[in-house]
Amino acid sequence: MQPTVALIGHLDGGIDQVFDAAVGPQVVESRDRMPRRIGALRLADRRLTRLADVMGSQSVVQAQLTLWHFPGHALGIGADVNPAWLGELRTADVLGFVIHPAAEAEVESALRSSADDLAAELALWDLEVLEGAAARARERATTGPRVERREAQHTLDLLDRTREQLAASTVLDASALTPDDRRALRGFGLFAVKPRAVIANVADLDAPGAARATANLSAFAVVAGETEAEIWSLEPEDAGDFRDDLGLPGTAADRVGAAVMQAAGLHLFYTANRAAATAWLLPVGGTALEAAATIHSDFAQRFIGADVAPCDEVVTAGGLAPLRAAGRLQRVGRDQVLADRDVLQIHFSR
């Protein structure tokens, strides 16, 4: 399942521009009760292409994220925010904060400040949800069978702790929550527990300075939204030259994708054979068994072991077979933690 990323911000942030710059012309206009624009954020990967070459793969399947936003809907203190829109946002896996910093502003500090403002607005909506839930739990804690009252009191204690933390900060410390706490809060879709990537939508002239200012920041990206949305109409070589002139590395999809991956704590692993070389998403710290389940549930259920090697070593050796012949292909068990861009070959019972 592809993680979903919802772009949000204020009306002047240029969300449409960032969306178009990141996903290009292949956009789906949904016909739901709350119309949204949906696009695939493709994670272009040169390593995967080189792996496909050495493995003789007939096709290359890049990893991708699902990006969406709701035209005409935005945050803003005092703005008329549609509750149905907020409800849809709560279903996203990752939030993309789109910010349009003033040209004369210090980009890094302006981005942090603006991101904090958006987070504070979302925290107010979280508090409203938690207060309603706490009122219902309080009522259940004083009526009904004893077991239900005890469960309701536990929920009420958790909600009160969560409200206190949100009142002091706009982000919940997930490490302070037990697995049971996280499961209990999951149903509320709290914004405060969702990963956040910050995207600066800047003018062409500000792009190089913004890129330098955010180069060492985690989960930040810079996009020259208006211009990069138009670059999709150019030939690839011309588009690359245009981006070089803007002083921006790679494509808007590359930059936004990298920020989202950092925010969500995701990385890639690969599988490759004659049919296809494929990139898969896996949480950082994910195991070989979890990777097998990502590919297909049957692989996890019948998992015996896996051969693992870094992609660069596979490419240098000319494939998995030469590594195996040299005794440099590692056979691992289900609990082996995969590194970013490991190549995985799964062995399972027939």
Low-confidence stretches: none
Which structural class do you get from the secondary structure elements?
alpha/beta
* CATH T-level fold name of the largest domain: Rossmann fold
Order of helices and strands: EHEEHEEHEHHHEHEHHHEEHHEHHEE
CATH superfamily of the largest domain: P-loop containing nucleotide triphosphate hydrolases
The residue fraction in helices comes out at: 40-55%
Strand tally: 13
Biggest sheet: strands, sense, closure? 7 strands, mixed
**Ends apart, CA distance between termini:** 25 Å
Rg (C-alpha, Å): 23 Å
Basic shape: globular
Tally of helical runs: 14
> Spatial order of the strands in the main sheet?
2-3-5-1-6-7-8
CATH architecture of the largest domain: 3-Layer(aba) Sandwich
Strand content: 15-25%
As for the number of domains, it is: 3
**Class of the largest domain, according to the CATH hierarchy?**
Alpha Beta
The mean pLDDT is 89
Describe the model.
This protein has 350 residues and is of the alpha/beta class. The chain has three domains: 159 residues, P-loop containing nucleotide triphosphate hydrolases (Rossmann fold, 3-Layer(aba) Sandwich); 86 residues, DNA polymerase, domain 1 (Orthogonal Bundle), CATH 1.10.150.300; 64 residues, Ubiquitin-like (UB roll) (Roll). The protein is built from 14 helices and 13 strands. The strands form two sheets. Strands 2-3-5-1-6-7-8 form a seven-stranded mixed β-sheet, sandwiched between helices. A hairpin with a 3-residue loop joins strand 9 and strand 10. Helix 1 crosses helix 10, helix 2 runs parallel beside helix 13 and helix 4 runs antiparallel to helix 5. The longest helix is centred in the middle third of the chain and has 34 residues.
